[in-house]
Design goal:
Blueprint (H helix, E strand, L loop, with lengths): L1 H76 L1
Amino acid sequence: MGTGRLAMVAAPTAIVGVLAYIITASISEALKQHIEGKKENKEVVEKEFKQKFVAHVTMKQQLIIDLTSDNCSNQVEQ
């Protein structure tokens, strides 16, 4: 009877161990994917920021060129 009880306790313990391993592996893989996603997202956000910055600077430079050109035209007329 002692062996039967040991088998009844050992089987659920082994199952719990296997389940714990599976859950841990799943969490580990999910975490890895999450981190990779964050890296990719960071790269996308950084690229978008750079594109917006270049567009903003280009617009400001065009405003300066327009203002300077208008000022030159006015000075030539005077």
